[in-house]
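U., I forgot to send this yesterday:
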Amino acid sequence: MSVTRAQQPVAIPTVRTRTRLAHPALFLAGIVLVALNMRACLAAVAPVLGEIQRTFHLSPTASGLITTVPALFQGVGAPLTPRLTRRFGTERVVLGAVLTLGAGVLVRVLPSALALYLGCVVIGVAIAVLNVSMPGLVKREFPDRAAAATGLYSTATLVGATLAAASSVPLEKALGGGWQASLGAWSLLAVVAALAWLPQVLRSRQAAGAARTGGTGGPAAPAGRPIEGIWRSSLAWQISGFMGVSSLLVYVLVAWLPTILADHGMDRGEAGLVFAFSNLLQVAGAFLVPLLAGRMTRQSGLAVAMAAMNAAGIALLLLAPVSGAWAAAAVLGVAQGGSFGLALAFIVLRTNTPAGAARLGGMSQAVGYLVAASGPVGAGALHQLTGGWTVPLVLMLGLAAAAAVAGWGAGRNRTL
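Result:
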C-alpha cells in the first residue's frame, strides 16, 4: 500500500452535489446529539460502581468487566461497520445504532447480573458502529474543515460523559430508584438523538430515490476506493496504537478513578466531583487539540505532549492521591480529551477520501478498543492481587511512554 506526503489538502471529488450542507445546522445538531450518547452511558457507571458491586456481589475483577465488555465489543464490532454502511447507508446505520444503544442501556439495568453484562455487550456494539460511521460522515460533509468538525464531534462526546459523571449520583437520589434508575435514564438521551437524526435518514432516502430516477442533489458518494492493504501499513498501526493505548488509559480511570480516590480516604461525593471535573476538562482538550492539529503539517510533537501530560497526571495520583487529586484530574482531563480528539483527527488527516477514513476508522478503532478493553479488568485484577493501586498506576506510566512513541509516528506528514 502507498503512503504519500500530505503537503496540501486533497480535494475530494463527489459523484453528485451535496444537499445536506444546505441545512448545516440541522446536520451538526444531529451529530452533536448522537455524540452526546457515545460516552455518557459509560461515564455514568463509575460513580455508582460500588453500589453495583454490592448489588450483585461482584469482585473488583468482575466489576472491571462492566467497563471492559463495552470496550471489547467496540473492537469486535468496528470492522463490520463499513459493510453495514455500504449496504444500508450511513444515515440509517447511525439511526439504528443510536436506538440499539438506548436498548442496551435499558437491558443493563434489569435485575440480573447476566442482563448487566448483556447490556454492556449491546452498548459496545452500538458505540462501535457510531465510532466508525462518524469520521466518514465528517470527511464527506466537511472535506475542507474535517479537523474542526472532528473537534466539535469529540467535544460533544466528552460533554455527554461529563454530564453523566456529574449527575449520576444526584439522579440516583432524585429518581429514588437506586443506581438502576440513574443509569436507565440515559436511554432518554438516545431517543432524543434518534428523533434529531431522523431528518437525515429521510433526506438520504429522498436523495436515493432522486438518483434512481435520474435526479441529482443527493448526498455525496464517497470518492475513491477503500484503502488497500491497510493492515500492512506501519502508519495505520501507529494511529491504531496511539488510539488504543490512549483509550486504555481513559478506560482505566473511567472505571476506577473515584474508587482509587475513595480507597485513599476521600469522601465518595468529593471523589465523584473530582471525576466530573476531569471529564469537564476533557472537553477543552477534545475541542482545542484537533483545531491545533488541523493547522499543523506534523502533529508528532502534539501527540507526545498529550502522552507526557497523561504521565504527569498519573504520577500525581501515585505521589499524592488525595492532596493532589484535583491537580491530577486537571492534567489528566486535558491530556485524555486531547488524546481522544487527536486520535480521531488522525483518521481524517491521514486519509484523502471518506471511504479511506471509514476504512482507517474501522481498523484503528478495532485495534484500539481491543487494546483498551484490557485496561479496566486488568487494573481491577492487579488491585485485587496486590491490595493497592501502586502497581496498576506504575504500569500506566509505562503505557503513556508507549503512546508517545506511537503518536510520534502517527503525527508524521503522510497520508494513506
